[in-house]
Sequence to fold (280 residues):
Amino acid sequence: MFIINCPYCGERDQTEFSCGGEAHIERPKQPTELSDDQWAEYLFMRKNIKGIQFERWNHIHGCRKWFNVIRDTSNDKIHAVYKMGEKPPIKSL
Amino acid sequence: MLSFNSPINEEKKYNDLNIIEVEPIIKINLRSNKREFSTKIGKILSILPPNEANTSSGNEKFNLLWLSPDEWLIYSNDKEMSLDDQTNLEDKLFNEISKLNQGAVTNVSDHWVMINLNGNKVYDLLSKSCPYNFNDFKNKKGSVAQTIVNHINVILHHKQENNLNLFVRRSFSEDLWLWINDSARFI
Fold:
């Protein structure tokens, strides 16, 4: 259990949020030219690292907005929260 | 046509806590990210939609709650508001906003059930199963919070000190009503 600072509503308990997985995955520009393996890589394969991870979160029981979170998966420390479409305030730690 | 069917329709009184469903009340959901939207709402309702998060605005007739940066909820204070007046209000909003592509107007009167909680033990009751921090909420009149109570999504609107309106989806309302009454026995 940890507190997430929603960029719209403010600090709320983690139970109000839903994690949407890894952030900043770009959709391939020419999907028809991809092989099945490349398409599957884009669709399904996600990093699940121990350490700093860039993630998408949704305040599902609040304002229902999506935003990005930089979280350390080893201790749930949140390093930054930023809105969709914004550039990450930290490139890597 | 709205039917305002409710599974509750009763009032419960405990020590320092009164719980009653307030109905029939018109509730309208507004969504827009257009600039002219605020002025149009201001002209129709004489209230401007709040831009600040977790706040509300209101006058004698209506309350306008902030739900998200592009979403608001209107509800009426007047239980005696006639069905004609309600239909006129909805039509006016629909014609000025939805029809002109300024946003979306949805009548959610039957979607939400409004329960009024009143008494010194209100926050003791909610704190039994709500992760929200009420420290700022209970001191600021007009505060709005969307959170979960007993795993059920609710909207809370601070009306006065120790007096708040709780909105719950109709299909969850009976479950929450039973939980509220069960929990109220032990506070």
